[in-house]
Amino acid sequence: MNLEGPVDGISRGNFDVGIRGLSLIAALFAFWLLLSGHYDTWLVSVGFVCSALVGAFMWRLKVLDQEGYPAGFLVGAVTYWPWLAWEIVKSALDVTKEILKPRLEISPTVVRVTASQKTSVGFTTYANSITLTPGTISTTVSFDDHTILVHALTREGADATAEGTMDRRVSRFESGL
């Protein structure tokens, strides 16, 4: 029996997409309620209809997959995004200190790091996180050998990237922990 193909108009893939679509609509509606702050009947119903329309458009465009709506990453995001925000603040302060020194002591360094992520979303999150952190930028991303070429403003920044703390945090984010 083919679990991926249609069986009387229903397939395992459609069931997964249906659950993913409903959770997307619920998440969009909750986000809308949070940002709106208005809870009268008309506005709440408009918010729900808009959320349902976005869900329907995503279903129609066939982008309700793991990449288009990575619902499994929501749990890991609760711990990863605050950690990344703090890393960005720390790096911004380090870069500011380097720039404001009377004698500029930067040591531009390029290092190749290996990514341990198992999904394209995780790998892309890792490369983007490196770029978001001031003082480092992902210059080349290779999906073939799972490596990222990183340019760092200082040798210390390159060493910190190569050390792998961010890689481990992104892998935990990817696994939903």
Automatic annotation (TrEMBL):
<feature type="transmembrane region" description="Helical">
    <location>
        <begin position="71"/>
        <end position="89"/>
    </location>
</feature>
<dbReference type="GO" id="GO:0005886">
    <property type="term" value="C:plasma membrane"/>
</dbReference>
<dbReference type="Pfam" id="PF01899">
    <property type="entry name" value="MNHE"/>
</dbReference>
<comment type="similarity">
    <text>Belongs to the CPA3 antiporters (TC 2.A.63) subunit E family.</text>
</comment>
<keyword id="KW-1003">Cell membrane</keyword>
<feature type="transmembrane region" description="Helical">
    <location>
        <begin position="42"/>
        <end position="59"/>
    </location>
</feature>
<keyword id="KW-0472">Membrane</keyword>
<feature type="transmembrane region" description="Helical">
    <location>
        <begin position="17"/>
        <end position="35"/>
    </location>
</feature>
<keyword id="KW-1133">Transmembrane helix</keyword>
<protein>
    <submittedName>
        <fullName>Cation antiporter</fullName>
    </submittedName>
</protein>
<dbReference type="GO" id="GO:0008324">
    <property type="term" value="F:monoatomic cation transmembrane transporter activity"/>
</dbReference>
<keyword id="KW-0812">Transmembrane</keyword>
<dbReference type="InterPro" id="IPR002758">
    <property type="entry name" value="Cation_antiport_E"/>
</dbReference>
